Amino acid sequence: MLPDPSLITNGLVEAFTLSNLLFILAGVAIGQIVGATPGLSIIMALAIAIPLTFGFDTLTAIAFLISVNKGGTIGGAVPSILINVPGTPESAATALDGHPMAKKGRPLKAMKYALYYSVTGDFLSDVVLILVAAPLAVVALKMGPIEITALMILAFTVISGLVGESLLKGLTAAALGFLCASIGLDPGTATPRFTFGMLELYDGLELTALSIGTLAMSEILYNIVGARKGKPSAAPIRVSGGTRSDRTVTFREYLANRYVALRAFVLGTSIGAIPGLGSTTAGFLSYSVTKQAARDPEAFGTGDPRGIAASETANSAVVGANLIPLLTLGIPGNIAAALLVSAFMIHGVQPGPLLFEEQGNLIYGMFGAMLIANLCNLAVGQVGMRFWAMIVSAPASVVFSGAMLLCFTGSYVIAGGVFGIYVMIGSAVLGYLMRAFGLSIVAFIVAFILTPELEGAIVSSRLITGDDPWAILSHPIALALLALSVVSIIYLGPWRRTPGAQEDPEKT
Fold this sequence. Notes:
Pfam families: TctA (PF01970)
Transmembrane segments: 12-34, 40-66, 113-138, 144-163, 170-187, 207-225, 326-349, 361-380, 470-492
Strand content: under 5%
Domain DUF112: 21-445
Oligomer: single chain
Protein name: Tripartite tricarboxylate transporter permease
Keywords: Membrane, Transmembrane, Transmembrane helix
Strand order of the largest sheet: 1-2
Helix content: 55-70%
Shape: globular
């Protein structure tokens, strides 16, 4: 079942059409701008952008969204370095050494360090994704409904335990996702559930409108409420001036931290391949490991380029790796991957191992687009760093009002009417309350996406086993996955604490 070489070639060639190249370039530029704008997030941008791709070709739409995600990881480093305020959560660790370097009169040098190591980590993780995704998909196809049911249970327990403040809160958020996904027709009996006589609910809640509400609109509301506290804004550092060495990074300076970058890439790729762990975790873990391994740990926090290399390489390596569980198992690795599920479904494509058999051109075209996006990231970042620095001071009133307009427009378009706006508003209120009470929006969205597949697997399993619970004993892989679920509950149970951890919107 390994892909035909001609299939790979055709897919890669499709990525190099003029329209795809232009949308990849536009996606990277938009991602960098959004990442560089305090108050906005890449998750918000992705949620809003998905409805805009409704009329696109499938490959063009996926390439555009992936490019936005990639661009955001680089753009987020700009405010982290200039004003010590992370533009995206994954750039928080970059500020620890990036801002001190900028205060020493080398802001452009710090931003270019971030750019080069971010592109390095992103590119290497894409290579890993391309090499391992197809073989893992072949293994995944050997799994039957019983094994898939056990795998889903494991995914829910792991994600609920890792992304929330506690396993209990994670499971509570997942239960809310189950409840919302139950609206519509029962997959086994085709009887309506929680529709309250409304025909619009017979097909369930629209995933994109729900995502825009819980992720984008709720974050806007949360930021508006936070802005009323009147926190003073930091003054950005001027990027002009200084000597040539203060504005450039030589190839020798880049290679000086090659071992730091290699270790960060391994950590970031490993974390990205595990569902539920995000870029922020990778960035801080890599920074901490690098600092502990250094002979002079006291140099970190004073503008050491090793800190930037460790953080940016690791958090960018997650971008490609988090698609591994999505493409091989149909399980989103993080919230960005969950939003890509929405984009796939809009275009009539079901993520999972069958993609390599049924949509080979699309998958390898997507891989080609990811590699092109890395080159565009490097080119756009190299040219645009000075311009993105100006965006740091964008007024919040303009940013939030424009984002809210896009939220309403996107929900109306994708749902085909006003009902999509109602779903978005209700989801925004729910998302705001979940943020306020510390419930994981990632667990909620993942549960909402995976519930239909879980229900289908359970129905098929019951038919295969004749409702005999002891039949699972003849399925050792399912037993092993259920055992891992029990272990994860024990390991990630109520006694797990993460005091003082950096809050990650990917995890909230």
